[in-house]
Design brief:
Blueprint lengths: L1 E11 L4 E5 L8 E5 H5 L3 H8 L8 E9 L2 E8 L10 H16 L9 H9 L1 H44 L3 H14 L7 H10 L11 E7 L2 E8 L2 H11 L9 E7 H9 L1
Helix pairs in contact: 3-4, 4-5, 5-6, 6-8
Length: about 270
């Protein structure tokens, strides 16, 4: 036998049966009930159901029994105070579950929590649990804000390091840091892998200050490479990632950054 709490999902007055929702176990489930179980002890509730009066606001505690046809309501109580003392062990388990939900600030607070808490432990204890949750949420926010500040400080330090080491202005160092952060987890070992990744995912278009249009040449052949990085930036990327350089005969003839191209077009 299991005790649960729920609101009426639906009720067929002409056939005398319906389904009540579940709260504690299988929250998305529902349990069958027959009106005869209600009429015996709660005729007013039965009349309300037969009159189809705001069924979604009707809720009660109930015991579940498993039959050959499935789970169904065997007993029900309109509030927790009416549940007999013989169910003390089950109620203690529900109280522990409710209190743990209040303290689990990593998950959203369920809409039913206030009502069920008041039913089980009273208004005063509900206020205490709510106060404790507010404090835990404040601590969680403070810890998250501290993590963000630390992460931002580390980011700024790394940008400053890149700018100073490679003599770059901060805007370019910032973009370079973003690109390196994207590249490091990929575990590349050769510059050829980097080049293929840059071309495949068009990374050059994400970083307008350090990328643009590269004019390449190889002997008498010349071609345009939109979304490329100039030699100095590319060398820095390879150096920071510790990549071996697989040399080719192709050379960069000219480079125009997207930022410079955009500025020129605005004049």
């Amino acid at each position: 036998m299991t005790i649960d709490f729920g609101s009426i999902n639906n009720y067929h007055a002409d056939r005398g049966f319906g389904f009540v929702g579940r709260t504690f176990s299988n929250p998305n489930g529902k349990v069958f009930f027959h009106i005869k179980k209600i009429k015996k002890k709660h005729p007013e509730l039965a009349q309300k159901l037969d009159n189809s009066e705001a069924l979604e606001t009707v809720n009660f505690w109930y015991e579940i029994e498993t039959t050959e046809k499935g789970e169904q309501v065997s007993k029900l109580w309109l509030n927790a105070d009416n549940i007999p003392q013989s169910y003390t062990h089950e109620l203690c388990g529900l109280i522990q579950t409710v209190e743990s939900i209040w303290k689990n600030v990593d998950s959203p607070k369920p809409s039913w929590l206030d009502l069920v808490t008041i039913e089980l432990v009273g208004v005063d204890r509900r206020h205490e649990l709510s106060f404790e949750r507010d404090n835990l949420e404040s601590q969680l926010r403070a810890a998250e804000e501290e993590r963000c500040r630390e992460a931002e400080a580390l980011r700024e330090n790394e940008i400053t390091r890149i700018a100073n080491k490679h003599r770059l202005e901060k805007t370019k160092a910032d973009e370079l840091h973003q690109l390196l952060t994207e590249m490091r987890p990929l575990g590349f070992t050769h510059s050829k892998q980097l080049s293929k990744y840059i071309v495949r995912y068009e990374l050059g278009y994400k970083y307008p200050n350090i990328s643009g249009i590269v004019i390449m040449e190889d002997g008498s052949t010349e071609w345009e490479f939109p979304g490329g990085f100039p030699p100095d930036i590319y060398k820095i990327i390879c150096r920071e990632l510790g990549l071996d350089n697989q040399r080719t005969n192709a050379r960069v003839k000219r480079f125009d950054s997207w930022t410079d191209i955009y500025s020129a077009n605005q004049k």
